Amino acid sequence: MGQLLGQHTAVNIILFDQPFERLRLEASDPRGTHIRQVLRAEVGTKVFVGFVNADRARAEVLALEPDGSVELQVIATEPAPAALPVQLLIGLPRPHTAKRILFEAASMAVSAIHFFEAARGEPSYAQSSLWTSNEWRERLRLGTEQSFGTHIPDVTIAPDLQTAISQLPVAAARIALDNYEAGTSLGQALPVDAGSVQIALGPERGWSPEERDIFRKNGWKLAHLGPHVLRTETACTAAVAAVATEVGLWSAPTQTAL
Amino acid sequence: MGQLLGQHTAVNIILFDQPFERLRLEASDPRGTHIRQVLRAEVGTKVFVGFVNADRARAEVLALEPDGSVELQVIATEPAPAALPVQLLIGLPRPHTAKRILFEAASMAVSAIHFFEAARGEPSYAQSSLWTSNEWRERLRLGTEQSFGTHIPDVTIAPDLQTAISQLPVAAARIALDNYEAGTSLGQALPVDAGSVQIALGPERGWSPEERDIFRKNGWKLAHLGPHVLRTETACTAAVAAVATEVGLWSAPTQTAL
Asked: B84-246 is classed in which CATH architecture?
């Protein structure tokens, strides 16, 4: 990131669903509250904004009204960094773990996260308020804002592994992490020129024999992340990082011109 | 891990500082409480134990006394997986972040974590009860127990970067993560045959110009983790994973014979 970013602590981008040139945020909008109270903006202050799955921009505070509303004017835009061509397939974990995965995977800009109810998972996890409210969307948005990008991963939930796999798009490499039966590491299993990668992570209790059969029948390779047993959220971040570096997906940070 | 592990949920190893053949845990020992209340052990139950920086073992519960004490007998031992030849050098982060790094880095079995007070860090972080109490040791121990290994990383805290660097052992590759000035990715900067790697992560506000000079004068390369801005704890896990996969440090999971 450029010099401007370097001078601020934890400057996140503020996301908007639709691009705008000029926008008035009502007093009830938490983004306006953030601009007033966290960024302590004055008239003329410039803030970073992002348009979901589109550009990022620099906007100037045109007005701070007594009623609490905030008026913004976009003064420059640039393309946001692209999402990683990586999709995650994850046995639905406990809500606390899912929250961390949603945030961290969004901050790493994976394309999509597909959850499914694994044979050895807990069916109750799907009833969590994380999923029945909009909390899961909020976690994704916060992760994307952290990343200084604009890409919000697609998220789906399937009732079982076979259903989840049958809904996936084509990918150059498909790897299921398995600390019990895999003989090769994730790096060894990955073709170096894989342009798109899908990675599956099981529940804490591991895959069932039927799930391993589904992977094999559908052309997935089993691979491990070394001899140590990682928490699901750690394994998730580690796997995305390992894929990104092995396949050379980490392009240089964009020196923002905003 | 072997079949036995696969049948249990979240079976962690229980760590002991010294190897033993037979041991009586007093009622006040939290490991005894864990064996009785979490593992719901009976006489004859077998549990996984580990000896810090040494073997892991299977032990049988010989006795559960009315006074709450637990007696264990080791019935088989095997070598624990080796630590990764990776050391972390981290600008002292806020305590909440440090807690996560201690746990996750220990679970990934890095050799050592060297914290230092970065120029753009907050001096108050070093006064946290995390560091003035034994809480930091507890976090490391929990991370190691999660990993099913026995290696507890060495941890040091230095007053500044130059002091921290001057105390480091020799390493084949030394890389400072820098999202502002690095032109190459971590994978590009790493020699493929690096047998040992040191990775430095700065504070949220980035390195100072003086710190970048210290890195350059000491032969460190600057590298990035792609165009997205990660939280320190995410970057830490991602960097260790990227190094482990690039340099081929992830050996196969040991099929435990215990």
From this structure: 3-Layer(aba) Sandwich (3.40)
